[in-house]
Amino acid sequence: SFSDALTDVGSGAFNGCGLRGIRIDHYRGEKSSLKFLVDELRYALYVTLVYHRENGTEEEARLLFPEHYEEAVENTPARIVSVKVYGSGHFYRYCFDGRQLQFKDYDTQFENLVIMDRPELAVEAAAGRLRWPLNLSEEARTRYLEYLNSHRADSARWFLKERDGAGLKWLLDTVEFDEGDLAEAIQAAGE
User: Fold this and answer.
1) 28, 23, 33: which is closest to 52 by C-alpha?
2) Within a 10 A sphere around the Cβ of 48, how many other Cβ atoms?
3) How many Cα neighbours within 13 Å face the side chain of 95?
4) What is the 3-state secondary structure (H, E, C) of the chain?
5) What is the dihedral of CA 67, 119, 25, 100, to 10 degrees?
6) pLDDT tens digits, one per residue of 78-111
7) With 12 labelled, which of 106, 144, 163, 164 sits at a CA distance of 20 to 30 A?
8) Which residues on adjacent β-strands are paired with residue 25?
9) How far is 189 from 46, CA to CA, in rounded Å?
10) What pLDDT is attached to residue 54?
11) Rounded CA separation 155/149 (Å)
């Protein structure tokens, strides 16, 4: 946890560290060292951004930067080396303009996450953006809601697994569950 006063993070500062979550409090605007952190870390990173406004209010966003890794593959006879990228996290690393996160670009990457990663990650990302909708466009909101509505049982299972009762209540109030979905969620809760 740190503030936007930390403007740069040295290369390799978190090598070998199991850093999974960070919180950045913004007091001086929208810029921070988040870009340097997500560039350095290839594992999934859970980020809480809190913007302290001049009028004394706070706005919050909770974001998931998914895991990614690269692999060099060599075609020895042709002496060609190509790089394969696994995981959608690679694309999320391009959602910055300088040191400022571009929420619109972040939300655009959701389709890559759905295609390249586990449904559980997509549920986490969609729920995080919808529950803390800072700078969330109506178009992105609709996409996230459509995903959760088409993955109702998976969404309920995820909240149950996380033991997030408030999140499960939010989901039940937000997504249109039918009797079958509720029965499946109740069975998952029993398990």
Assistant:
1) 28
2) 16
3) 23
4) CEECCCCCCCCCCCCCCCCCEEEEEECCCCECCHHHHHHHCCCCEEEEEEEECCCCCEEEEEEEECCCEEEEEEECCCCEEEEEEECCHHHHCCCEECCEECHHHHHHCHHHHHHHCCHHHHHHHHHHHHHCCCCCCHHHHHHHHHHHHHCHHHHHHHHHHCCCHHHHHHHHHHCCCCHHHHHHHHHHHHC
5) 70
6) 788 888 878 899 899 999 999 999 999 999 999 9
7) 106
8) 3, 50
9) 25
10) 93
11) 9
One-letter amino acid identity for 42? R
Q: Which two tokens stand for residue 135?
A: 């700078």
> What angle in degrees, to the nearest 10, is found between the helix axes of 138-150 and 165-174?
100
- Contacts of residue 159, defined as CB under 8 A and 6 or more positions apart, other chains included, come to 127, 167, 168, 171
Q: Provide the token pair at 41.
A: 């870390």
Hey, which residues does 82 pair with through a beta bridge?
A: 73
Query: Looking at residue 48, what is its pLDDT?
Result: 97
